[in-house]
Amino acid sequence: MLASWKSPKGGSVKPGRMSVDSRIPNTGGGGHMWDSDASFSSEGHHRNSVGGRDVMDFEGLNIESYMSSSRVPPGTPGRPLRIPKAGKKQGETITKGHKNYELMLNLQLGIRHAVGRPAPPTSLDLKSSAFDPKEKVWTKFPAEGSKYTPPHNSCEFKWKDYCPLVFRALRKLFKVDAADYMLSICGNEALRELSSPGKSGSFFYLSSDDRYMIKTMKKAEVKVLLRMLSAYYNHVRAFENTLVTKFFGLHCVKLTGTIQKKVRFIIMGNLFCTEYTIHKRFDLKGSSLGRSTDKPEEELDASTILKDLDLNFIFRLQKSWFQELCRQVDRDCEFLEQERIMDYSMLVGIHFREASKAGDLIPSGARTPTDDSESEQSGPRLSRADMDQLLIDPAWWASVRLGINMPARVERAIRRMEGEMQVMEPTGEFYDVVMFFGIIDILQDYDISKKLEHAYKAMQYDATSISAVDPKLYSKRFRDFIFKIYAEDL
Q1: CA 106 vs CA 145, 187, 236: distances in Å
Q2: Which range (51-60, 133-142, 454-463) has the least confidence?
Q3: Over the stretch 421-475, which tens digit does the pLDDT of each residue have?
Q4: Directed axis angle between helix 471-485 and helix 319-338, to 10°?
Q5: Pfam families, per this entry (predicted)?
Q6: What is the mean pLDDT of the chain?
Q7: Strand partners, 264
Q8: Cα angle vertex 349, ends 344, 355, to 5°?
Q9: Residues 6+ away with beta carbon under 8 Å from 284
Q10: Per-residue DSSP letters for 213-252?
Q11: Against a cut of 0.85, is the pTM above it?
């Protein structure tokens, strides 16, 4: 299936194509193009304005079906999309004998002590002194116990809480119950360590119920967070629908004795904590250099993190949600730009609502009562009118938020090469989905190492294609890209 736009004179013209790295190919004088503000402009076509920005309007989209041959190559319209094979449950359970077993015990003891100790009622109106980087609380945990700490089977260690009043207020702001928080992280169930560290060298741990992710941090990252903590607090307090990562605690474990090892870590919300199966995951930056998965196709499964050059969908949201997305991405990027942060990503998870028993995804409107299909246990399929009605139902708002549990549609896009540039072309083939998305990795500032990385790579590659760029340019490129891959569902 190919998408084409009707010209004002009644003919048909080929649609402008969007470059996945936000560069716009020159199509010559007669073609329609995505402009730099992520709009679709042409005489006779409508333009919607969202927050002062023109956004693409697909009114007049004409879909034609064709089959070029009996054998359909991968990525060609007509070849059915399939549910990715299920991935293994993420992470290795940390049991006795694991190299990080004692570290996990120390972490759980420290959090239980920090969160569970008596404290006056938490106020959201904090004094500036609460954000002072020197605002730390050290607690010693001897193995035999003390007046303030219980005896334990681990080695002696010291525990540090950074800005405890701030993170207590953040947990209240994010409506985290203290007892549930401790039960998730410090209950009888062990944490799970993800199988391999991230590119940064940090290790990640998941709580047993998947609600919280714990990441080890470098000292430089801790400094960045403490520097921007006041601005972060004010931002998430002002904008309830912010997409930036939710932080719940910043701590350090210092092993005493001969090792004298320090492990700093942050506790964050897990975006993909849901009853829905996440079938597709994307980490999107808006850059192109090195932005594709390095796994062969046969090894891809539902747990694989795909990247910009692997993207083959346009995400379509209800009008009100799309408008709020545009506003909130602007707010969040302005905040990150002001804090000199770059290299962040939009993490996206997609749950496809329907597939056949054979594993083929069923496009929107393609299902009939006699179809041999299976619908997820997420309720019946909803018409767009029904979905609009749900979105104004107070009970629905309890589970649906911007970026969380969002009913949406994705439009399949075909990847093509134009010269040395990969482009995406919409097909008019839609799928009903539930979406999850948020902005992650927000603790990388444009420090000397990133400036050197930019200078080195810019000598070898197109400077606009690399991730390491100035925060102002990064913010603009990121927004331009997001406003191209998200669109209003008309």
Answers
A1: 13, 13, 30
A2: 51-60
A3: 667 788 889 999 999 999 999 998 776 777 676 566 666 666 666 677 889 999 9
A4: 170
A5: PIP5K
A6: 76
A7: 217, 252
A8: 160
A9: 307, 308, 311, 345, 346, 347, 348, 481, 482, 485
A10: EEEEE-HHHHHHHHHHHHHHHHHHHH-TT--BPPEEEEEE
A11: no
Which residues have CB under 8 Å from 130's CB, separation 6+? 163, 165, 166, 169
Contact between 31 and 43 (Cβ < 8 Å)? no
Question: Distance between alpha carbon 125 and the CA centroid of its chain, in Å?
Answer: 29
3-state secondary structure of 359: coil
pLDDT tens column, 325-361: 999 999 999 999 999 998 999 999 999 998 888 888 8
Q: Are 157 and 169 in contact (CB under 8 A)?
A: no
**Beta strands 345-352; 262-269: pairing state:** unpaired
Query: For residue 458, what is the enclosing H or E element?
Result: helix 448-458
- Residue 237's identity, in one-letter code, is R
Q: How many CB atoms lie within 10 A of CB 142?
A: 13
- CB contact at 8 A, 89 and 194: no
Nearest to 440 by CA among 343, 363, 355: 343
Q: Spell out the residues 6+ positions from residue 166 whose beta carbon is closer than 8 angstroms to its own.
A: 126, 130, 131, 135, 229, 233
Cβ(382)–Cβ(407) below 8 Å: yes
Q: Are 201 and 103 in contact (CB under 8 A)?
A: no
Q: Angle at Cα 62 formed by Cα 45 and Cα 423, nearest 5°?
A: 80
Tell me the three state secondary structure of residue 282. strand
pLDDT digits (tens, 9 = 90+) for 191-235: 998 866 556 678 899 998 999 999 999 999 999 999 999 999 999
DSSP 191-219: PEE-SS--TTS--EEE-TTSSEEEEEE-H
Tokens linked to 195: 């199988």
The continuous run of DSSP H or E covering 115 comes out as helix 101-116
Please give the pLDDT value at position 397.
61
Q: Does residue 458 contact residue 465 with C-beta atoms inside 8 Å?
A: no
For residue 244, list its beta bridge partners. 439
- Tokens standing for residue 67: 């089959």
C-alpha 41/C-alpha 23 separation (Å) is 16
Measured CA to CA in angstroms, residue 453 lies from 221, 225, 459, 470 at distances of 18, 22, 10, 11
Q: What is the pLDDT, as a whole number, of residue 361?
A: 87
- The whole-number pLDDT of residue 222 equals 95
Contact criterion met (CB below 8 Å) for 167 and 137: no
Alpha carbon 380 to its chain's center: 27
